Amino acid sequence: MVFNSIFFIFCFLPVFMLIYYLVPGKLRNLLLFLGSLIFYAWGEPVYVILMLFSSIFNYYMGTELERLYYDDRKQKINLIFSIIINLAVLVFFKYYGFLLNTIGGIIGIHIPHPELSLPIGLSFYTFRNLSYLFDIYLSKVSAQRNFLTFSVYSTMFPYTSAGPIVRYTDIETQLKQRTINISKFGIGAELFVKGLAKKVLLADNLSVLYSSICGHPQMSVFTSWLGILAYTMQLYFDFSGYSDMAIGLGKMLGFDFNKNFDYPYISTSVSEFWRRWHISLGSWFRDYIYIPLGGNRVSTLKHIRNILVVWALTGLWHGASWNFVLWGVYYGLFLLLEKFVLQKYLKKIPSWLCTVYTMLVVMIGWVFFSQTDFGALGHYLGTMFGIGASGFIDKTALYYLKTGFILLLISILMCRPAPYQYFKRLVRRRPVAAVIINLILFALSIAYMVYNSYTPFLYAKF
């Protein structure tokens, strides 16, 4: 089941929310757990077993880590064992084929293997459960003794499929006691509509534009840049739209999840971009990989090593393909370049020019991200810089510019904070107008969903 489906919006969600609000508070966790299993099983019934195993295993290991608090050696052994089991499951389902193909490529033979479908949300709930264990080990939180309470955290349907990676420390109190009321429901519903509109009205149409451009065997320089601009906007509205919907659903259920995006495309440096993009993943790698490696409180060479390790792993987390590793290393190198060379220059030039520089780096980075085939990747990058291009601009480019101009213009405007700030002022001054705007966006989104084919969330496959 997915958020951008008619069944979820008009069947599952209203029935679930009605029961959730009517049952006594002490039964809400049970209902949320059962509802989350139904939500997940709707599309992948077999993999519910995998999710339940993850919940049971990490619940037990959490209690063991706390029990062994005064025995550092045994506690460390149990933590390592927990990490191995969690990562073994992740590697088997996500990287099994990738590893065999890589080994086969090195030794020069083809190793046949069955294709395994990736359980939706596996990377997200694995990292979520690992953060829980790490925080117990670091004494940041006590182990949850109630299995049902922990299972709600581990399986909750708003963030199951594509994050954000909510940490147990952030919602520990809310798992036991939370407030639900009309005000929070209204805020949550507004966030859900905002995310739905981002996904259905912007991301899905940008996907059509990008796919059409990529379908051409030969492109002009302008066409290739137009295509990657469409993908750049599509990815943002697709993933930030999902995050808005997840946070909105959380509000409706009485939870307060941290934001996952903070207008990343207004950043004035690559470093700032990664403080604003997929915040929950970036902070996860910072707290559990980068800092334990020594962070920046080590020698220069080790600092460089730490950044490259973290970004190679960040890239690999996104997908079982070498282009993702290359994408991660690409960002690691730019972060190092900014830290040791460009930082002093970026402070002296106008902020708009810094944003242009950042967006150029980001757009080129999304080429690495979008092309899993190295031949296609090299061809697209070459075309962007005139190598193998049909010219600087052609009729095809003018056609896509003409048909996609309004969509791209709206997308560029809507990835900036100004429209949302205006809407917040409108809510305070003219609440009725704000309600009407939300209803129009909701109606347009539903109409588009009815008359167009379903498009999955991009980050659900990671």
UniProtKB/TrEMBL annotation:
It is a multi-pass membrane protein. Keywords: Acyltransferase, Cell membrane, Membrane, Transferase, Transmembrane, Transmembrane helix. Coiled coil: none annotated. It is found in: Cell membrane. GO terms for cellular component: plasma membrane. It holds the Pfam family MBOAT. Its main location: membrane. GO terms for biological process: alginic acid biosynthetic process. Its EC number is 2.3.1.-. The chain crosses the membrane at residues 6-23, 30-57, 77-96, 307-329, 349-369, 376-393, 399-419, 431-451. One of its GO terms (molecular function) is acyltransferase activity. PANTHER family: ACYLTRANSFERASE (PTHR13285), PROTEIN-CYSTEINE N-PALMITOYLTRANSFERASE RASP (PTHR13285:SF18). Belongs to the membrane-bound acyltransferase family. This is Peptidoglycan O-acetyltransferase. It comes from Blautia wexlerae. The lineage of its organism: Bacteria, Bacillati, Bacillota, Clostridia, Lachnospirales.
